Structures are given as C-alpha cells and as structure tokens.
Amino acid sequence: MTLGHKVSDLYLKCRHMDPIPLQTSVTEQTAQRLREAIILGEFPLGTKLSEQKLADQLQVSRSPVREALVLLQTEGLVRVFPKRGTFVFSPDDNLTRDLCEHRTLLETACVALAIERNHARLLKDLKASFTHMQNAVSAENTINYSRGDLAFHRAIIKHSGNSSMIKVYETTIGPIMALRTHLFTITGIQLDRSMEQHQQIIEACAARDVGRAQALCTSHIRHLSDHVFEAQLG
Amino acid sequence: MTLGHKVSDLYLKCRHMDPIPLQTSVTEQTAQRLREAIILGEFPLGTKLSEQKLADQLQVSRSPVREALVLLQTEGLVRVFPKRGTFVFSPDDNLTRDLCEHRTLLETACVALAIERNHARLLKDLKASFTHMQNAVSAENTINYSRGDLAFHRAIIKHSGNSSMIKVYETTIGPIMALRTHLFTITGIQLDRSMEQHQQIIEACAARDVGRAQALCTSHIRHLSDHVFEAQLG
DNA sequence: CGCTCAAAACTACCATGTTACATGGTGGTG
DNA sequence: CACCACCATGTAACATGGTAGTTTTGAGCG
Description:
Two copies of one chain form a homodimer. Chain A is built from ten helices and three strands, in the order ααβααββαααααα. Chain A has helices at about 5-15, 25-40, 50-60, 60-75, 95-115, 120-140, 140-160, 165-185, 190-205, 210-230, and strands spanning about 50, 80, 85-90.
C-alpha cells in the first residue's frame, strides 16, 4: 500500500478549480491522498478502513482522517456506518447505471456550454490532453493514460464555465474512475478504440457541432459502462 | 438468570440497520440542525460561524461541529477558510446563475425520467405537495409553503430513480433555498403565480408531455433567478 | 491627525484521552 | 449437542487541551 506521495505533487494534480487555495489544511491533504489511493485501486473495493491505521500510515492524528472520510463519503468513495466503521464503496448494478447516466447528463450539457462559451480554450485543452494520452499509449503507461483521459473530460466540464457542475462532476466521476481502475487491472481496455472516440469528440467540438459532440460523449460513456457490466463489476 | 433483560433481545432490536443506519450520529444531527438554520435564514448570509459558539449553542463538543461544517461545505452552504474561519456562503451573480443553470439541467432531465419510470408515484407526490402548498397559502404560512415547494421539486428528482442525481440535487438546491428564504424576507413572492406554475407542471406530467414539463420547469426556475437578480441578492 | 507596528485576543487546527458501542469468543445451561 | 448469556477486546465517536496562525486594536511615532 503506497500512500507515500508528495503533498506538493498531489496539490498540483487537484488544482482544477480551487479559486483561492493559498493554504491547504492537513485534512484536505489527507483527503486528497486517500482519494488518490482509492481511485488508483490501492484499497480493494469494499474493504474496511481503520481510522487508526490510516492515521498511522499518513503520519497524522485521527481527527484529520475522520474529517477526510466525511469528505470522501460525500463524494461517494467511502461509506461510513456509525459505530461500525468506514468502508470503501462497493458498486452495485444500480449505482453504476446511475453514475453513468448522471455523467452523461453532465458531459452532454457541458460540452454544449463549452463549445458556446469557451471554444478556443476548450480545443486547446482537449488537444493537450489528447497528446498526453497518445504519449501514454506509446509508453504503454496506463496510469498516465488515465490521467490524460481524466483531464480530457475535465476540460469539457471546466470550460462549461459552470462552477456548480464543475464541483459536482468531481464527486460523480470519482467512483467511476475507481471502477475503471479496477477494470484496468482485470480486463485491460481497448486503447485504440478509446483514442479514436476522443479524436472524434475533438473534431466535433472544433466544428462546433454540438449535437454530434453530445452523441459522441454519450456513446463514449456507454462504452465504458458496457465494459463495466461485461466484467460484472457492478 | 439474575439480570432483568436478555442481551439477545437488544440485539434483535438493533439487529440490522440495513439501508440507512437508524443510528444517527451526533455529527449528522448537528449538520441537519445547522442546515435547517441556514436554509431558514437564521444565520444571515456571509456571517462568520464560530465553532465554539455553535458547539455551546448545540450542546455538543467542537469535533461534531467541525465535521458537520465539512459536510455543509461540500453542500455549498458554508465556506471554510483554513485558519481564518467558517462563513455562511454569500452568493455572487455567477454562483446564482450557475446554481440555477445546474438545477434546471437536473430537473428537466429528472422530470423526463420520472414521467417515464414512475409516472403514477410522481403524480401522487406532486399532488400531495401541491395540496400542502395550497393549505400553506390559505394559512399564509410561508415556511410551510417553502416546505411544500421543496417537496414538490424533490418529488421530481426522487422519482427519476437516479440515486446519484438525487444526492447531488440536495447539495445543489441547498444554497438556492437559502437564497429564496432571503428573498422572502425582503420582497415576498408572488404566491399565486408560483402556484399556477406548479399546477401546470402537474398537468404536463399527467399528460406525459415531457417537452412541456421540461419547458415549464425551466421557466419556473428562471422566474426564481430573475427574482433573485431583481432583488440584487446575487 | 494619520500611519505603522506590535501585542493581545480570538480562532481554527491537530493531538490525545475517555467513553460507549459492536463483535467474536467462551463457558454455562437446557 | 445446541443455544444463549456473559465477557473481553478492538474500534469508532466524542470531549478536551495545547499550538499555531490571523485579525484587530491601540499605542507610539512621524
């Protein structure tokens, strides 16, 4: 279990929306480290998380851990049962369906807004993420590929300009990313097909073809959920 | 047997706290009380919340208060500035716009899903809420009117059947409701017009007219946001 | 009279201690 | 042998105390 990230690295990674994060509390650092750990699959889904163990590993007291777990619960990554313990979320069919349905709603709405409001910046970030993913594919680095993929979709949300949706997207995509990580470790993923889909989304955005971009996002997410269900992950 | 009661009896009573833990922690109780207080306008928007004061008022220690504030922060009701304090959220133009845009997205999506998936139950709850609001209007009880209004829109979300959207809706509508409460205290609201809008939404849902229901929800929310902007609340 | 700086008061933040609850095991009893 | 009450242990929930940082205010100085 490798929780030993550098705080500064994590801080840079989670800087998508913080308006004024001049000072970052231990609680937030702890939350970020745990978030990463769950998303990257270092804790198997459904396992119990001991506050004391986490506190020992992260070299902090239990208070920040507790508050971080409260945060992660609102993001759907863990489930807290009073007096019994905290567990990493474990998906069921319904939850996966709901999450993907919700993500589709958000991304289709945001891609329309982003094309309308921030066309240039959207394209810039999409292309940058795409290049990042290409490099990851060449290097066969699945972790970096995931990061690029995440950045790609975050760009769509971010450039919608809607702070509320940006915030919610993070809490929606967390469990999905954790699921996908699990998927990676079990079945792998069809990288070239995924790359093609992203490429098409970029083209549709470049052409300001909102309808096509939305359709592509929808099918892109559907591919993922189908994949999850095939693997019977939930 | 020397003792009066058998342990097994107690076990039966609290056997399995299945879907929702019936044991509610002090933290959640605290969060609920603070949530209500903010939404009902007991704390003016933007005011500073002292952990110690709140702990004294609520007769608990500071730990539950802290964790409750973390919760409320994720719901957008308060804003925590490390080492500086916790403040009730104060809206600006952009936030209000974003929240209403987001709420519109959720409600239009959910009303379509609800009509498709839970038509009967949707209508039942909508009508019940409507009756509740009518009674509140007769009694000139604005608090009850707010509750009914909230229940009305929650019904739409709930019967979409999407757990992820249900969860997010709460965190989206919290600040909006707080804003509306503020609006009430300042300018009042056109109750009859609002009632008419709700009535029309019910009719559209009854007729399974998805497009019309969505359009009505959109304009309903737009009325609210216009009202907020007119009052220059944010 | 206004400005600067420093000290004090306040506050959040984190650590530690205490209590209460849940769980697994064991011995006793029908 | 089976079942159930009791007990021990581990863990979470809550309380409290100490520390570091921020804001404020007031006194001294320009």
